[in-house]
Design brief:
6-stranded mixed sheet; 11 strands; 10 helices
């Protein structure tokens, strides 16, 4: 669909990253005849979980995450920027020891580019050894870890456990895959999940989203980009698409403007399909600003 003279609104259901946000950058720059205008509509609020933070802080201060044979853990797993924020805060609070936080010799696994960027910003000399950015989702990261971690600790018959820093709501595909009883003993990896943050829907979201929709009611089309299963019901309710009795999506109204929905990846798409019987218009092949932009523009081209 060749865009006309007006810009196409894109509502990004996330908190704007600082100091810059790559989604804002890509959706505010006209490119290949597409001209979007991005608006951030924060949907999630996060709070640190004290118990999990204290456990992690103790492990770091005691040097229990290392390559040493007597350490509790031989590596870390991150699949969210919020978990990295908790980790970064503890690293910052513990400054003073030049070797802090003693993680020079372990692999740190990250699910995608955004989480990896956040990890690379955590000060460490020499830098943290981060792997897995290319995987893009938990399934692929788990398979990568099996091979990579196995090679990292190839001299040990039993691999040291991994510490997985998570939120209250998460998928269990990584620990399930790594601890699969069908794996040979020398390949199986024990995983400890430690909850370091909680997630909920912001009270202000419904009003903020309604206002954003009202302000673009005169546009021909607009996009909503969803980044997490949390809050999907609030988003669908805001669009008037959710049946109160069944909890499923009702047939889309012939609205003006047409509102399209894109997800950052298969986890959120599958959640929408499974929970609400809803198939989003676009599922990004890569969980990145470029991937979302490409998915949306490819879809729009197909409308012509």
């Amino acid at each position: 669909m060749a865009p006309g003279s007006e810009k196409v609104p894109v509502f990004l259901l996330k908190t704007k990253s600082t100091p810059t946000d790559a989604y804002e950058d890509i959706f505010s720059t006209p490119r290949d005849s597409f001209d979007f205008e991005s608006t951030f509509v924060p949907i999630l609020q996060h709070k640190f979980e004290d118990d999990g933070m204290q456990k992690l802080d103790k492990l770091l201060k005691q040097g229990q995450i290392s390559k040493r044979i007597d350490s509790a853990y031989g590596g870390l797993i991150f699949t969210s920027q919020r978990a990295v924020e908790v980790f970064g805060k503890l690293v910052e609070d513990g400054k003073g020891d030049e070797k802090w936080p003693h993680l020079q010799d372990i692999p740190i696994y990250s699910v995608g580019p955004a989480t990896t960027r956040a990890l690379k910003a955590v000060p460490q000399i020499p830098p943290l050894q981060i792997f897995g950015e290319h995987t893009g989702n938990g399934d692929a990261l788990a398979q990568f870890i099996l091979d990579h971690y196995g090679e990292w600790y190839k001299d040990r018959q039993t691999k040291p456990p991994l510490l997985f820093l998570v939120g209250e709501q998460r998928r269990d595909i990584i620990p399930k895959t790594l601890m699969d009883k069908n794996l040979p003993d020398e390949r199986r990896i024990q995983v400890t999940e430690t909850v370091v943050y909680g997630t909920g829907v912001m009270e202000s979201f419904a009003g903020d989203f309604a206002e954003a929709l009202q302000e673009t009611a005169d546009r021909k089309s607009r996009w909503v980009v969803v980044f997490s299963p949390t809050g999907c019901d609030s988003m669908l309710k805001g669009l008037g698409m959710l049946d109160d009795e069944t909890g499923k999506v009702i047939k889309r109204p012939q609205e003006q403007p047409t509102t399209y929905i894109a997800t950052i990846g298969p986890t959120t798409r599958n959640y929408l399909k499974r929970t609400f019987d809803f198939e989003p218009d676009v599922c990004s092949e890569k969980p990145s600003p470029e991937g979302v932009w490409q998915g949306i523009t490819d879809f729009m081209k197909g409308l012509t």
